[in-house]
Design goal:
alpha/beta, Rossmann fold, 8-stranded mixed beta sheet, 6-stranded parallel beta sheet, 26% strand
């Protein structure tokens, strides 16, 4: 394989800017086919993005001989089904986060890929952002000494009745489709980065509840992780707060690192009495750095940037935090 010719299953909102255009901007990569169950929407996407082929049947896209890699961008309830179909067809898979509906499904996907010797990567794309790569560099270089604790606070005002009436928001708070609520939609990025920063997990505990009953999914989650390295993490997610908050602080023996996951482009480092601020550009296509790495991995040039086993471990953390 000298070039990755991608087929997208589920060409919805996430693919419009975040990921879709990037497949044609990365070296040795091209987007050649898209699929959506609504044929008119699939055709419209293909026309607007200059994609040569479109389908409303996933099996036809998967078995298209001109497609040699599959990107799955449907809601989580379909990830396992489409990933297994692609793996059984012998085609490598790049799957959106959360990796699956639950931990069991994620493990099944990872096991199938390993058994068939088919490559599987998970779209925890913030790993490849310059901002978070810098955070990891600061940790690895011991810029704030030995890491002791990481604390996260993430709060959002409740979804309005109008927002809940639209499919864009409604499926995200339907556990049958999303696996949970907004925690399952947003926290995979955050928990994956903690795992990426600090390594294997020794112990995880959590609680979840539905406080406001605006929908059936949990709307408050809190929990903690003890990593095998000795680093402790605590996090709280509230989706009914009066105001929004997006804070993470990593505390070490010589200082701290502060940043946001979704609402900022700076890192503030306080160490040994001095403060340094690092600022990063906003990315046009947020998945492009990860897609570049996945292409290189599929072409056997580099190791897997986020494996199915790693994605399954993040699913386990989500499940434990949600108290299930």
């Amino acid at each position: 394989m000298q070039k990755i010719n991608w087929g997208i299953i589920g060409c919805g909102d996430v693919t419009e800017i975040k990921s879709g255009p990037a497949f044609n901007k990365v070296s040795n990569s091209s987007l050649v086919a898209v699929m959506r169950r609504d044929a008119a929407k699939a055709a419209d996407y293909a026309e607007r993005h200059n994609v040569p082929k479109w389908y409303n049947d996933a099996d036809k896209l998967i078995n298209d001989p001109g497609v040699n890699a599959i990107y799955i961008a449907t809601p989580p309830d379909a990830h396992e089904m489409y990933a297994l179909a692609a793996i059984n067809a012998g085609k490598p898979v790049y799957v959106e986060k959360p990796m699956a509906l639950n931990y069991a499904a994620a493990k099944n996907m990872a096991a199938a890929a390993a058994e068939k010797n088919i490559k599987l990567s998970v779209a925890h794309y913030r790993r490849e952002w310059p901002l978070f790569k810098k955070v990891k560099q600061l940790i690895d270089e011991k810029a704030i000494g030995e890491i002791l604790l990481a604390r996260l606070e993430f709060y959002k005002p409740p979804l309005t009745a109008e927002e809940l009436s639209t499919n864009h928001h409604a499926w995200r708070v339907n556990p049958a489709i999303a696996g949970g609520g907004l925690f399952h939609d947003l926290a995979p990025h955050q928990l994956d980065l903690m795992y990426y920063f600090f390594g294997a997990v020794q112990k995880v505990t959590g609680i979840a509840t539905n406080q406001c009953a605006n929908y059936i999914a949990d709307d408050l989650v809190a929990g903690s992780i003890l990593f095998e390295s000795g680093v402790a993490f605590s996090g709280a997610w509230c989706f009914n707060a009066a105001t929004a908050a997006d804070h993470c602080e990593i505390i070490g023996t010589a200082g701290s690192i502060r940043f946001s996951f979704f609402s900022g482009n700076t890192i503030t480092v306080v160490a040994n009495g001095a403060t340094a601020i690092f600022t990063f550009d906003t990315l046009q296509h947020v998945q492009q750095p990860m897609i570049e790495k996945v292409v290189q991995y599929f072409l056997d040039d580099i190791p897997n940037p986020c494996s199915g086993e790693e994605g399954a471990e993040v699913m386990r953390l989500l499940q434990e935090f949600a108290g299930r």
